Amino acid sequence: MKTGVQKIVEKYGKDKTRLMDILIDVQSEFGFIPREITVQIADDLGMSEVDVDQTISFYHFFSQRPTGKYHIFLNNSAVAYMMGRKEVADTFTKELGINFNEVTPDGLVGLFETSCIGMNDQEPAAIINNRIFTKLTPFRAKEIVRDIKEGKDIDDMIVADYGDGENRSDLIKSVVTNNIRKIGPILERNHKPGQAIEKISKMTPEQVIDEVKRSNIRGRGGAGFPTGMKWEFCRNAPGEKKYIFCNADEGEPGTFKDRVVLTERARLLFEGMVIAGYAVGATEGILYIRHEYKYLQTYLESILKAARDVNYLGKNILGKKGFNFDIRIQFGAGAYVCGEESALIESAEGKRGEPRDRPPFPVEKGYLDMPTVVNNVETLCAVVKVILNGGEWYKSFGTTESTGTKLLSISGDCKFPGVYEVEWGFSINDILDMVGAHNEEVQAVQVGGPSGAIIASNEFNRILGYEDLATGGSLIIIGKNRDILTDIVLNFTEFFIEESCGSCSTCRIIPTLLKNKLVKILNARGVKQDIDDMVEWGKILKASRCGLGQTAANPILSSIKNFRPLYEEKIQKNKVFDSGFDMNAAVKESCEVTGRVPNI
Amino acid sequence: MSKPIVATTSLAGCFGCHMSVLDIDDRILELIELVEFNKSPIDDIKKFSKKCDIGLIEGGCCNSENIHVLKDFRENCRILVSVGECAIMGGLPAMRNGIAIQECLEEAYVNGPTVVSNEEVIFPNDPELPMLLDRVYPCHEIVKIDYFLPGCPPRADLIWEALVALVTGDEMKLPYEVVKFD
After folding, report:
1. A59 CB-contact burial (10 Å; exposed 0-12 / middle 13-18 / buried 19+)
2. Which CATH architecture has domain B5-97+133-179?
3. B2: distance to nearest CA of chain A, Å?
């Protein structure tokens, strides 16, 4: 064990900023990270034990106790439940004879919950030993357990056919399907890799930034900061080295567009990173990908290698002296908050993914305190087309405020879940038509994932764009038969509780209080004051440091705003106060332990 | 006009808040001019003999008895005040929250350093005993609480000022020194 760990640490040059990679390799080799390994890593890297510990304990996919030879992480997102997750979960627990968060006594299988894994268009889905299993059914769950008990190799457990496109390639071999439903100018198939790199090699970095500025493209991650401006800030910031980060940590439940881009348009993305590097004066790019997409690693590495072979990456790119740029892939280890750019940088430095205080912004002081641009996958892809076709061309798509197109990840109650590339300016009604969801069968649409808003049919004429409904691209369609409060709002609130980094007391505490209120209302013990409290307390979250904390009350606040009757019909009309306390439930545990019959 | 009636109790607390009440020193003479006491450890009245105006609650709720007493107070007092950290947040006793009851009882009755011998692993289970709750609850999670006096314990001056303000209806004086906790 000792030499194994030493090898891993040496593989990363005993560099403590590569702690994430070290831990990912250790976790994958030993199935967990035991105490003695933590101590050894700390010694080898010259760090304190607690510093290693705090990184380990922060991430969902690191474990300090054995997770079993086979570890099943079953997604618990709202859409997974809509698609029959409960029955699948019940089958797993029954067949394995363990509850979630437990390992079978023989150490063979561990069963765990996990937040949205980016497969909302093919739920219920699970990650088993880093392989993705989609569209699970109770029958399939039984099969999987049987295969595991027979000791089958994980690759042989994929009995159904592989997915479409590159998912079938030898380097991926996954059952995941792309579900690309609508192709626009960014996703179009005819892109010839390297074209844009050739073009910029004849331009100055300033010209590249000007072209991007001319396109008015704004960041596709959700916040919508103008990309050209970001690049310019970074270019002008003093620093001996600069970095380009591509944020592929899409963890917002309901988002999966990056998965599809990484699978089918990775060359385009890498080209976008090269362009950003050239414009900013950066020589190193880091593609930060969520751990859930680890199954794409070999494939992506092979594309990077191919790009190096033809000198689209490396030193003196295309013979241009001083045009140096290379890309490495950094995996996360399961933490939604790492999608926030400063948390992502912290994570890439091997630390807990806690958002930083700002200013300074990453463009001034980012990765290793050097000027850093963090761009979304989609933004970097779009930039390639902007360079090839010009900023004016790009502006011909979308609206004045929101130029270009947007990749939407659409899931939930519709006929055609998947990725759609549409121009900004589409209304929700247009989209419902497009995805095969009849307006009259739709109760609500969750725009922008849990941190966005849940809207009712009277707002379906609103349009997608920074001027109206800004979105990172996740749309979840909620049918008439769904119970919004239980199926959606409660699930999303639990998601925020699970994913809080715990740094700000607001985000650490209030979502739990809000959840308790919501559960009380669902248990028919609520009163009007509870609704008022939730609205008031929700506002306090705005004091949190990052977007996760600031939006953690959105599922509750936006559903109260747009679906208030759902709350009102559940509260007690004849009472002004009810604490919700239940004596029977409160004494149950102690009576069981002491062998008493409760007498209340 | 008859004097306002005050009741007090200590639930899962340490009686420190009651001690703090006594810390008002000679103002206790003014106090008995100002109010009449009913159910309270101060005068040892065990049961409410009439409806009260103000109930002062020390301590949170750790067992079924605490719940009954607190509900009794709510029924018999017009205004209920949570006095001190334990009543407001559960306080020190709430440190057991998050630890399984089995473990708590084992620590107290089997493995604790003061346990002489309990090889049969017997936990107190007489039906007369209050039943432990799954966790220690702050009072406002059980009944409606009207006011909160923070502190561990709240300073005598704070309790005095609050009581006088409640009784006279005057605005309460809350200088910084009375509510700072560092």
Report:
1. buried
2. 3-Layer(aba) Sandwich (3.40)
3. 30
